[in-house]
Amino acid sequence: MPKARPAWRGTALSEKHVTVTAVICTKNEAATLGEVIEAVKPRVDSVLVVDGHSTDETREIAEGLGAEVQLDNKRGKGAAIRQAIDYLECDIIVFIDADVSHDAADIPKLVEPIVKDEADLVIGCRITGGSDELAGDWGSFARSTGSQIINLIVNWRFRVRLTDIQNGYRAIRTSCAKALPLVENITTIEQEMTIKALKKKYRVMNVPSHEYRRKSGISRISVPRFACRYVWEVIRDAVLS
Prior knowledge:
- By secondary structure, this protein is of the alpha/beta class.
- The chain has a single domain (12-239), classed as Spore Coat Polysaccharide Biosynthesis Protein SpsA, Chain A.
- Helices cover 42% and strands 15% of the residues.
- The protein contains ten helices and seven strands.
- The chain has helices at 11-14, 30-40, 58-64, 77-87, 107-115, 126-129, 138-158, 174-179, 188-199, 223-239; strands at 20-26, 46-51, 68-71, 92-95, 121-125, 170-173, 204-208.
- Helix 2 runs parallel beside helix 3 (58-64).
């Protein structure tokens, strides 16, 4: 039986014959990965899981649900994202987290502006869509405030009006992703991707997308540990160059 067309493809869009792959970077996400893959599969052509050498059943769950699985090089999420970009030959890549914090139903909103040739990189916005993770305690406040300051710097530097440049939930034209000289090994790659896309004059836009509190485990983003790296990356790529 042939695979059903992804749900985002309407009559007009289906004429474009584009292919979409969802990339999920994982490390010990067995508790939630199955739910994410099941939600994503009807909306894309294929799913690639880049796993950080999980010690639980993450890889077995992914393979059992029909996802392609690769092991990363143990350098972090950024390195896993770069690995996926280098490997894939689809038209559009959608990056989505494994912890159910992103709503797979928003994939059409991310993909359609690229299919319609209105954008090259589309980022889900937690400011207009709301976030359960960026409020409620001092750590969340620090993350939110720091993100907005960096966002303002990027908007000033490139004369744009983006509202969220760091959210990992995003879709990008694969040819554009391959042309970006990405080097970050950790979560700073998402900010780096946005800045370097703007430097190449790619069309970047935001669409509202709600960020839910993760269902299992804890966030691996440490504000004290990574704050300096985020600041240095924006200075290096947006201010000095």
